[in-house]
Amino acid sequence: MTDADGRPIVAELGRPETAEETRIRKDANRRAHRAHQTMTNLVLALVASLGIVLFLVAVVVRPDQSTRAAVDYRSVAADAQVPGVTIAAPELPAGYSSNRADYQDDPSDGVPVWTVGFLTPDKEYIGLQQGIKANPTWVSNAMEQKTATGSRTIDGTKWTVYDRRSEGSSAGNHEYSLVGKFGTSTIVLSGTADQASFRTLATRVAAQQDG
Fold first, then answer.
1. What is the CA radius of gyration of the chain?
2. pLDDT, position 63
3. What angle do CA 153, 155, 159 make, to 5 degrees?
4. 128-137: b or e for each residue (b if 16 or more CB lie within 10 Å)?
5. Is 50 exposed, middle or buried (0-12, 13-18, 19+ CB in 10 A)?
6. Euclidean distance between CA atoms 42 and 178, whole angstroms
7. Is the pTM of this model over 0.70?
8. Do the Cβ atoms of 162 and 177 come closer than 8 Å?
9. Are 58 and 50 in contact (CB under 8 A)?
10. Element containing residue 53 per DSSP (H, E)
């Protein structure tokens, strides 16, 4: 509804708008429109960003431990010259591979350590640590201060057993461990593999050390 001059009559006022009221109303409408447009643009930007993130998650390959390039642990062992010590690097059957191999000759605890990470044919893990002139503290630390649960003899070699499989996932890569003494070396085998894989590795390690 408008008056005789064409000015809109404001219902709540019962009269036409003044020039000032008209200006204020139009300014308020413009601000509301700009605010709405800004919010719309923000929502569209967030949707676009989320779409990009989802796309990247879908197409980017995230490598894990099982897809790392195999390490030639026997070659690395040959470069680790330790007088009077046989570095544990036995040849294993087909299907076994290594994803880590390194020798630390000056660690903080004073015990040089040769370390190898093995993946079994069924993609389970066994880590090998060889402590040179290791002391009981080194063994305890390697076993996360856990107590031995028994012993077993594999092809004539006695190993101390640390069986933590009852702990489930909290045991991490220490579900099952074997600790053996060979001359000045203490060898620890720890991992998630089955008994057959542990037997294979323990047998090959002992044969190399005793040979």
1. 36
2. 41
3. 30
4. bbbbbebeee
5. exposed
6. 59
7. no
8. yes
9. no
10. helix 19-59
The position carrying tokens 């643009």 is: 41
Chain-centroid distance of CA 79 in Å reads: 29
Query: Looking at the DSSP assignment, which residues form a beta bridge with residue 57?
Result: none
User: What does the alpha-carbon distance between residue 80 and residue 91 come to, in Å, rounded to a whole number?
Assistant: 17
* pLDDT digits 0-9 by tens, 30-85: 777 777 777 777 777 777 777 676 655 554 444 444 456 789 999 999 998 889 99
Beta-bridged to residue 179, according to DSSP, are 160, 188
179 contacts 128 by C-beta, under 8 angstroms: no
Nearest CA among 116, 124, 180, 125 for reference residue 148:
180
What is the helix, strand, coil percentage profile of the chain, to 5?
40, 25, 35
Residue whose pair of structure tokens reads 């601000």 in the numeric block:
31
Q: Which two tokens stand for residue 203?
A: 């047998």
